[in-house]
Design brief:
single chain; mainly alpha; two-stranded antiparallel sheet; 2 strands; HTH_HxlR; transcription regulation
């Protein structure tokens, strides 16, 4: 069954999920943020079927999240590297990781934790903040349609 694409909606969540809403795409971005760049490396890391990986990489390149470039070692292969748009997804992945650590693991169960490379300390938990810095609760955030101008 082919998925319905949601391209004309006012909802940025729906438009985002239209591109990165399947788990493989976000896992590819996660791996790319960790330095994975070759098709075979993605395939080995994720255990994804080659045809599915090909389709996901193609979509991520078409949408400007990844770009291809000649392999850095001078071989005939190509590498997939994140664009600025792709690197910006790191915040989304940090939020998912923090949510997963809080809600999906039992006390004492091993889990990966994102840390600041310099201090080796866990990242501060992301929170909703008003423009003036106040922490907001979910019920304090409302939706409105804004002009993009």
């Amino acid at each position: 069954m082919k998925r319905t694409r949601i391209e004309e909606t006012f909802c940025p969540v729906a438009r985002s999920l239209n591109i990165i809403g399947d788990w493989w795409s976000l896992l590819i971005v996660r791996d790319a943020l960790a330095g994975v760049s070759r098709f075979g490396e993605f395939q080995k890391s994720l255990g994804i079927a080659k045809n599915m990986l090909t389709a996901r990489l193609k979509l991520l390149v078409e949408e400007g999240i990844l770009q291809t470039q000649p392999a850095s070692d001078g071989s005939a292969w190509q590498e997939y590297v994140l664009t600025e748009k792709g690197r910006a997804l790191q915040t989304v992945l940090v939020a998912l990781s923090q949510w997963g650590n809080e809600w999906l693991f039992t006390r004492g169960e091993p889990a990966s934790v994102l840390v600041d490379e310099a201090s080796r300390r866990p990242l501060r938990k992301l929170m909703l903040q008003a423009e003036d810095g106040r922490e907001l609760q979910p019920e304090e955030v409302v939706l409105r349609v804004a002009n993009s101008e």
